[in-house]
Write a structure and sequence with these properties.
Helix content is about 45%, strand content about 15%. With about 350 residues, it is an alpha/beta fold. The protein has a domain of about 230 residues: Aspartate Aminotransferase, domain 2, CATH 3.40.640.10. It has a seven-stranded mixed sheet with strand order 1-9-8-7-6-2-3, with helices on both faces. The chain has a two-stranded antiparallel ribbon with strand order 4-5. α10 links the parallel β7 and β8.
Length: about 350
């Protein structure tokens, strides 16, 4: 029988200070703090210029027509289930995602040198890649552009990697500091990881030309650097999915290795579905197979396997020619409207 003194001690312990009493309040994440402030602002003319999401003419969230169409089909599909996906995700989704960025005729795909695993959007893909590199790559230094997307450093720091930067944006010319970029990457240690953005560089909007990309590729290969591409905006720059992927395809057709984090948040408006993938291009099919086996061990303790709904939407669109064409038309219309709005803003300040 529990003694009175024990009961009193237990009661005192429970009523005392929290075991988390020394936890310091973390600062708000700026972009999400803006969202909260926006939701509380009563102004009828407020605009949310924080998080990067597409809005309709009246400022409402926009769901692509082709996405709504696919969701209705999925709802009516009696064969569809809610079973767990494999650790690597939906196989058809992975195959189509690799083809979208590398091209359906990519030699790397045909030779089975690419392993693709479904991840939780672009952020999850980058973090999965970072964790894999921390465990299985000899060099732990990552070079990020200066500036870069605000969350980029977090993925690699959380994985235990060391960060350095390379010059990218020139505020005087408001363009690319190409020579500075080459100089910094040229002085990077052999094997260093370099994070590039495939197109529509966040936050500057400045991209290298194809000629400059070729010079970057030659430097990367001659130095033995490992390129890691963030592919969040494919199709949003030129309106062409193939044109916008030319940078990363250069690094695949040369037979070298690289990593690519894909995201469907922006290009299909699937922000809340968290749909993405990580592709790793390897020297041989055997290496790719072994890399995939280790990616499973990275994913298993993090989230075990990815969600099914968003991947099912993307798969349905990518595999059907009519739906694919409908998507690209909608995407192009969104891009044209954004360009028009930017021009209007520029004219207003002129």
């Amino acid at each position: 029988m529990e003694s009175l003194s024990t009961k009193e001690k237990t009661s005192k312990d429970c009523n005392g200070d929290s075991v988390f009493e020394n936890v310091v309040r973390a600062p708000d994440v700026p972009v999400y703090a803006v969202m909260v402030a926006y939701s509380k602002d009563p102004s009828p003319v407020k605009l949310n210029l924080g998080i990067g999401v597409y809005r309709t003419e009246d400022g409402k969230p926009h769901v692509l027509n082709v996405v709504r169409r696919v969701e209705k089909l999925l709802l009516d599909d009696v064969s569809a289930t809610k079973e767990y996906l494999p650790i690597t995700g939906m196989a058809e989704f992975n195959k189509l995602s690799a083809q979208l960025v590398f091209g359906a005729d990519s030699p790397a795909i045909k030779e089975n040198r690419v392993t693709t695993v479904q991840c939780l959007a672009g952020c999850g893909s980058l973090r999965t890649g970072a964790d894999f590199l921390a465990k299985h790559y000899h060099q732990h230094t990552v070079y990020l552009s200066q500036p870069t997307y605000g969350n980029h450093p977090n993925f690699f720091l959380a994985a235990g990697l060391t960060l350095k930067t390379y010059r990218y944006y020139d505020p005087i010319t408001r363009g690319l500091d190409f020579q500075g970029m080459l100089d910094d990457l040229g002085s990077a240690p052999s094997g260093a990881i370099v994070l590039f953005q495939v197109c529509s560089h966040n936050p500057t909007g400045v991209d290298p030309t194809l000629h400059q990309w070729e010079q970057i590729r030659q430097l990367v290969r001659s130095k033995g650097l490992l390129p890691f591409f963030d592919n969040a905006y494919q199709g949003i720059v030129s309106g062409s999915l193939d044109m916008d992927a030319q940078s990363v395809r250069m690094f695949v057709t040369d037979g070298g290795e690289c990593l690519v984090a894909h995201s469907y948040s922006k290009i299909m408006g699937l922000y809340g579905e968290r749909v993405g993938a990580l592709s790793i291009v390897c020297k041989t099919a055997d290496v790719a197979s072994r890399v995939e086996s280790q990616l499973k061990l990275v994913i298993r303790p993090m989230y075990s396997n990815p969600p099914i709904h968003g991947a099912a939407i993307v798969t349905a669109i990518l595999k059907d020619r009519e739906m694919f064409d409908e998507w690209t038309v909608e995407l192009k219309a969104m891009i044209n409207r954004i360009i028009h709005l930017r021009q209007q803003l520029l004219d207003a300040f002129a």
